Amino acid sequence: MTALLAVARYEFRMQARKRSLWIAATLLGGALIVLQGDRGPRSLPVGTPAREVMGTWALLFAILMPLAYGMLLADRLVRDRKLRVEPLLESLPHAPATRLAGKYLGGIGACALPGLAALLLAAITELPKRHDPALIGWALVAFVVVTLPGIAMVAGFALVCPVIVSVPLFRVLFVGYWFWGNMLAPDFLPSLTGTLLTPIGDYGATWLLANGHTALFAGTPGFLSFLRPDPSAATAALSVAVVVLCGLIPLAAAAVVAHRSTRQTWPSKA
Amino acid sequence: MTLTIWLHEARRAGPAALLAPPAALLFAAAIAVFIRATNGSRAQAQTLLLAGLEAITPLAVAMVALTIVTRESCRELHLSLPTPHLATIGRRLGVLGAVAAVLCLAYAAVVALAGYRTGSSGVAALLVWAAPTLWLAGFAALVAAATRSTVLASSAVALVWLAEQVWASAFVGSPLLRPLFLFFTSRVGDGPGWAANRVGLLAGGLLFLAVTAAVLSKPERLLSEEDA
């Protein structure tokens, strides 16, 4: 446990200090603020419930900001190999799974910082207009329900997949997936958009809106209909759980492979 | 000798330079086949096949281009050689461009033989994929050369690509943004305004590459320990 926390803390500090994380997140978040149009949170009338305001902000930021997190985390495991420090790290007493889990938790923590900062800043800038202190509280709820699960899923895949498909190809697939699996209308092509598996936080944001409308496509009929229940508090919680668990699948697979690999190479190392 | 250098630079460009363009095209073709196999419409399949040329391939080429510009583990060694570093990077980008061009031509020919339409016919058909690919790859190379960061460059490419997909109507509707719209053929068609859009993209792409060359002509700007 101490080793896990140490790896996570070290990874968190390394990532949180990267200028590129903050600049990329600011670039993408800033573009969303500019491009939000008349359907964005700034256009919501005064008197709109705080949870709806912050749900709309959280969904807006979730459209593009996770791309920065995926790009940042894509080289975390590949980098160890590239810098030829992987054998050194493997010689340490803790299990490879511990290092992997530590990188995962530290990466999530670092990527969560700009996500949380964006939502809190949005809440603070809304305060003078709406005079509702509950905005801060709902910003935190929106962060937990919409932003954080998406980061967890992105982190799981961004850490492991580049080892298999290379970093540039992962980045291509990730951008394509983000559009296809989160924003492409399900009646246009068979896609995961509107299912419980959308890391953009469609179900969570729809629960926060609580106005009878879906945030994007949550529950819209389409491909894999069993993954498209009607949006509610229960299905929002289910979506959070499913999205987080999905992010753990590649990690678990990588941990198993790393464990077997260590056992196979142990005699030759000895 | 010349061929040897080009083959060497093809290897140094990395497997992604050779694999990403065919992977992008195969991906689009596979989904189109899946759609037809699951009783999807012919129009849906045609849109996807066109998207493979006009949207997915430019994204793949751009991501590899920015990697080529930023990834060089022995840049100091290159700077000490008589060959300008700009020429080395240029050859690697050239290999990427050649691979993408050959594959796009073959893909377009196969799609046409299968009876699907991917925009204009004749020489103009080249612009369906060449114009957005040149623009996005030039943009990626420029941001990568200027920032020396793959994270920033790939985020910027992702931002442009996704923003143009999500806010397509805003790009089409604005005379200022229309020359920057990458997906004109698949979203609007090859009617009025298409040629101007393609010329705008080509001009923009060439401009980006020229500025990238200017930045790379001072390669000491690229010296850094690691992605910041």
TrEMBL record, chain A:
The keyword Oxidoreductase does not apply. It comes from the Bacteria. The chain crosses the membrane at residues 21-37, 57-74, 104-123, 135-152, 159-180, 233-258. Keywords: Membrane, Transmembrane, Transmembrane helix. The keyword Transmembrane helix applies. This is ABC-2 type transport system permease protein. The lineage of its organism: Bacteria, Bacillati, Actinomycetota, Actinomycetes, Micromonosporales.
UniProtKB/TrEMBL annotation, chain B:
Keywords: Membrane, Transmembrane, Transmembrane helix. The keyword Membrane applies. It comes from the Bacteria. The chain crosses the membrane at residues 16-35, 47-69, 89-116, 123-146, 166-184, 196-216. The keyword Transmembrane applies. This is ABC-2 type transport system permease protein.
